């Protein structure tokens, strides 16, 4: 059986990555590929790395073009997703790679995005451990509307959730600093994304708790911890195209014990197909490039009473498009790993 | 049906890439993975990007460990391949990713490598057009010994062969300058391959006709042209890990016509599954990264009477490991594209 | 004695580099810094690497603001330079870093730039050897209008001129392929200059003899050779911000002898303060980064009858702003090296 | 007046940077340049970016060769510095760029370095604010033995010291994560510093409080705060050759007020010649490359009660060689800025 899928917003980097993964998925058939200003262009002109569909033309993102698909992926600017989503059939599985439906708290949405809250969809992070027991995976089966997590959010959440759920971390003292690649900033023209500005340089941005991924991080970690979590998050742009290397540090709770922590993580993640818990090595973004994998390492700094959980993902795969496919698999009742079990491209 | 394959020299970059591709191939089962100084280590410690086989241990490269496989890939230093090859059964398909069996002319081998010539195996470049008619593909079926081409050689040969076979190029006036990534230099420790030396820098090497790929280039182009070809080749190391961007220029023959040339290339390559002939775009290494694809563009500079054929490949895939799998597919009678039809990882 | 200098077009990369060099020059005092759309902004917002002048404001590029300076550097888009130049006093030394006044042949200008030819100024390449004897240096003294050479042009010209002047090269068979950094493309927003497109990738552009630097290259080499020279030139964009690594190959003339060639280059360049003739090493862009130096190496490939001259420059220093200061020094009668004798920043 | 200076350990990256800065210093004359295994080689072979001294030969690092200089810079592996230092005259100014003489607490030294403590020299960080009043600058005048700070240490210390001295930060809750370039790891051959491993990748190292710079960081911040400070520090290697981008976060003290903090930093740093306090921009490593400058920005995240101080330095200049020259200037009674007032090389 094959599902017919559409990609709305196929001209950007997330759209391109969805196309790459759809082509590799044994149970998917590519239907409409849509865009806004790029409608009419060929995929080959925008994504020359996908020769199999180079001659396909982008059509306009509208109700008619997106109708008649089993699955629609939205890879659109925020606020636009919500508009397009309204036009889609209830029986279609829709996965939004944007932010519109991630947050549950309308005031958090409005504070960070400045537009009215569009609603909340089922959150597409299967591996998220929940304070109430179980993982988010159980909630995705048969869903028709899925909000795909933010890339930085995934790097932090998967790194800290098990320790929080186990009560081993203090949820009020979390500091996360991430080295992130440029593709996460999208394909729009901005002067500080010019290669001349990025090559040979590192720079922080969204400094001081203002990055839009912060409330989503706290929403997740609060679900994992069962009590309110807060996060100090700072991203640093570095000269890599893909990848997030997250250094997540958290003060340990009173009852902390490092051996227990390691068991907790093994218990949470040893059966997860996309999570590698490293013991003798440290994560690198190169080791996950192009794959849906997450690398995680644990270290305890007794001297400061902090655990340092380092995690690495490919922002366009496990950070977005791969996570979307993984949630789609679950929502459709396919094998969760279908079309996603390949190694990274390294070096 | 599944073929059991071994990789000899699995600790290096070519070895790692063979493993990645073998894992994605539907008709292969991984047998022994061998190394020399790294024997005893886990694949996870050397290739952390391949979690599916992280716990597999490298065994020593010797006759016993390599016996009992349908296919053996050799990813060994030159001269070592020839030694190991002697120990392998005649009924085993052996593909050498090194240089030992590529050259037909013993004196060329000795001049460039300084050791006795080990022999010549069937050359694993299916798309190579031959002056005598047909392509090299026809010679690979049922072979048991295949010499996988050099990476730079592939980038040049596929770029110029059709025009030479058609008699539209002067085979005695070819200049090729390539921007090449660092993985082509392998994993050995050399001070000029330190990141501090490579980042932000470009440097030529092997300047003045001394690069070892030169005689192999000329061997191929001579077969394509039917008359003796000579090549001025200069590689330039640039700060990318993978990829070859080749600028191949050639003086046109007297009877040259650019429209004819374009037809010749379309005729030669439009049905090739791994070759993209670009008309409105120019090749980039990013657009082939991680894939077995080749991008080629043609331009005619009337003013100097030279054609400039730009080509791009991933040196570890179409340049080595992917080419090895492709030739293996042909030699085994599988579909030539089996396990190799995936897009590149971009951006 | 101190000269008061203005920079017109100070918001771009060439403008920024002129400012950096002016601040280091012992005999210059910075006057007006002008821009077009960025007028009113502080230099600190555009060039945060120059804290000494962070609070200076950009003023509009107009006659009044540029009046009253001893020296005016133009770092403007082509055609704009010519417009602004008209408004400047004859007694002011004007150096144009753009293309407007480089070409002597109006038809070449019109073919490559598509606008009317503005005229020709004294060419600012002191080290250029001339077929008629001497070097270009001798023509710069006391000049009031200087055309600063194109960056790629400098990398090629200095590499080949002495051999052409000596009659050792065939001026009709020159092939040059350069690995170039992104800053040479300027600060304007273009999608193919986004970091995500450039990182990890190499791509050729201006392929097939259409790059605008071609006629300037041929003009120079014709002056060096004394007979008409033609050049096949292809630039390749690589992930470095600064630098040009040029692989320049040329067929040798009948009377060629490699030992003679080396003597010719030593004779031409051993006293040049900014040219390093390497014998045991090869040029790298890292080794000239931030400096006004040129590295040049010679190799002879007897087998193809071609000499390969590799050269490296920093496109923003010896390729533009440094060359401008050097010519200014000569035109003002200062020491040619004043303000320019510093090493490169490596690694 | 000119001082004669020697560089012991001139073959590495710090040694090379010292040479570059010495050549630009108006009051220095280069004497002996020494090395261990590289003795006998020319500087040109090791530092081709410094053509002015390309023909100088490295001599052995020994007492005789280092005698007779006014100033000796040590750029040696730790433990070696202490050995060499014993052989130098008391009247010679000696500046150690290594770690041997930085720590005051012998047990901290032994814990992190595993060798006997060699002693403590005057700490070469002029801008360090002290809880007891004043800055470290006052202690450097006329000193003969100076310990140059560690590069990461400088990036953290200058970022947080004024707020700690003012009592506005909690010295027990400091988390610092730095993106660091590869040159900080030196020129020794290590497989994880190969360009193929570094390009396109980010990876943390020294995770969990084990990095050797940690005790030096805490020593400095304790002096700034007047009470014991502790630091959770994690470095991340990113694909840049030079530069440190430090994200330093600290919980605010009870009496904290952000406006007060900004005034405290202005008071501490507005007259510092090498520190730029940014208000509308954020630091980048590109903006300090090649310069002795430090960029610092302040942000307050009220939501988590943490201040985020971002700082950027060039690890080889302000992080090592530039700091050494600056301390030398002070120790010799020269202008502190002599030979160091130049802008960065950007883009």
UniProtKB/TrEMBL annotation, chains A, B, C, D:
Biological process, per Gene Ontology: L-arginine biosynthetic process
GO molecular function, one term: N-acetyl-gamma-glutamyl-phosphate reductase activity
Annotated catalytic residues: 151
Stretches assigned to the Semialdehyde dehydrogenase NAD-binding domain: 4-136
Principal location listed in the UniProt entry: cytoplasm
Pathway involvement of the protein, from the record: Amino-acid biosynthesis; L-arginine biosynthesis; N(2)-acetyl-L-ornithine from L-glutamate: step 3/4
Catalytic activity: N-acetyl-L-glutamate 5-semialdehyde + phosphate + NADP(+) = N-acetyl-L-glutamyl 5-phosphate + NADPH + H(+)
Keywords, alphabetical: Amino-acid biosynthesis, Arginine biosynthesis, Cytoplasm, NADP, Oxidoreductase
Protein name (database record): N-acetyl-gamma-glutamyl-phosphate reductase
Organism of derivation: Aquiluna borgnonia
């Amino acid at each position: 059986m094959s599902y017919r899928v559409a990609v709305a917003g196929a001209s950007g980097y997330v759209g391109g990555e969805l196309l790459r993964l759809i082509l590799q998925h044994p149970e998917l058939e590519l239907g409409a590929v849509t865009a806004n200003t790029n409608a009419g262009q060929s995929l080959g002109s925008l994504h020359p790395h996908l020769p199999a569909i180079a001659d396909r033309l982008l059509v306009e993102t509208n109700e008619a073009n997106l109708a008649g698909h089993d699955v629609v992926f939205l890879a659109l600017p925020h606020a636009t997703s919500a508009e397009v989503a309204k036009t889609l059939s209830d029986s279609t599985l829709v996965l939004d790679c944007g932010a519109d439906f991630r947050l549950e708290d309308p005031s958090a949405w409005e504070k960070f995005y400045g537009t009215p809250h569009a609603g909340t969809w089922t959150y597409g992070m299967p591996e998220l451990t929940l304070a109430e027991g179980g993982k988010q995976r159980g909630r995705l089966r048969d869903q028709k509307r899925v909000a795909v997590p933010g890339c930085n959010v995934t790097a932090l959440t998967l790194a800290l959730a098990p320790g929080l759920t186990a009560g081993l971390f203090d949820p009020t003292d979390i500091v996360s600093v991430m080295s992130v690649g440029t593709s996460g900033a999208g394909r729009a023209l901005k002067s500080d994304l010019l290669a001349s500005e990025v090559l040979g340089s590192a720079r922080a941005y969204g400094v001081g708790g203002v990055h839009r991924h912060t409330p989503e991080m706290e929403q997740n970690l609060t679900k994992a911890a069962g009590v309110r979590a807060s996060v100090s998050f700072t991203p640093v742009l570095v000269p890599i195209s893909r990848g997030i290397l997250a250094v997540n540090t958290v003060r340990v709770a009173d009852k902390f014990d490092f051996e227990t922590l390691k068991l907790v993580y093994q218990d949470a993640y040893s059966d997860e197909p996309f999570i590698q818990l490293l013991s003798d090595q440290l994560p690198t973004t190169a080791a996950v490039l192009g794959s849906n994998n997450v690398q995680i390492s644990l270290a305890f700094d007794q001297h400061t009473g902090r655990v340092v959980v380092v995690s690495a993902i490919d922002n366009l795969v496990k950070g977005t498009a791969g996570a979307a496919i993984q949630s789609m698999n679950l929502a459709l009742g396919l094998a969760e790993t279908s079309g996603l079990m390949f190694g990274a491209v390294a070096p």
